[in-house]
Amino acid sequence: MPVRELDVTGLHCPLPILRTRALLDQMALGEEVIVHATDPASVIDFKHFCNTTDNALIAHETRPDPAHGALFVYHIRRGG
Fold first, then answer.
1. What is the sign, positive or negative, of the torsion defined by CA atoms of 45, 59, 22, 30?
2. CA gap 8, 6 in Å, rounded
3. Rounded CA separation 43/13 (Å)
4. Which residue in 4, 9, 11, 13 is the catalytic one?
5. Is position 13 annotated as part of the catalytic site?
6. What b/e string do you get for 12-33 counting C-beta neighbours within 10 Å, with b at 16 or more?
7. Is the pLDDT of residue 1 over 90?
8. Pairwise CA distance, residues 72 & 76, whole Å
9. pLDDT at residue 6 above 90?
10. The overall pTM is greater than 0.90
11. Is the peptide bond prior to 16 cis by the omega test (within 30 degrees of 0)?
12. Which fold has domain 4-77?
């Protein structure tokens, strides 16, 4: 199953979560998405989102990004 990607860079809370939720709602169970965000609050938001839904946070990574300071990458699997 191919992995989808979602770019929410430049958006601030709550938009990264809202856009991710909207995409996950269209995806099949077990399908995965990689989300790219720049909002530092997204670290807490995505962990909380996955802990309170059936979606699984498979991995989280922070990368340097010259334009935004940091790029936060989340790998999420759609749950049921």
1. negative
2. 6
3. 11
4. 13
5. yes
6. eeeebbebbeebbeebeeebbb
7. no
8. 13
9. yes
10. yes
11. no
12. Translation Initiation Factor IF3 (3.30.110)
